[in-house]
């Protein structure tokens, strides 16, 4: 969501770099947005977070939206922005989507990783964080 919001804002100014006040506003808006379209879907016995910007899962399986997830995602977004800082996140965005993913997700095996390389401990840590 952060990447998409920054891309849209830059599109409005002709793909130029945003001013500090503009990217700070975009990041705040990204984290404060409604997260109601996100939820949990079970696939192959594992529960996965699904929603806009996330890899799509089995379209015919049951997806539960709402509940605690909108609040948790907003809190996690604000926490990530606070921990990393707006300038660092925007700098990563200017370098490309891979840089944003590395910064916020700690690589493919981090919090955003979708592969099966994650161990039980890392899934438990993510669950506790959410």
Automatic annotation (TrEMBL):
Source taxon at top rank: Eukaryota
An example Gene Ontology CC term for this record: extracellular region
Record-level GO BP terms: regulation of B cell proliferation
Coiled coil: none
PANTHER family in UniProt: MARGINAL ZONE B- AND B1-CELL-SPECIFIC PROTEIN
Protein name: MZB1 protein
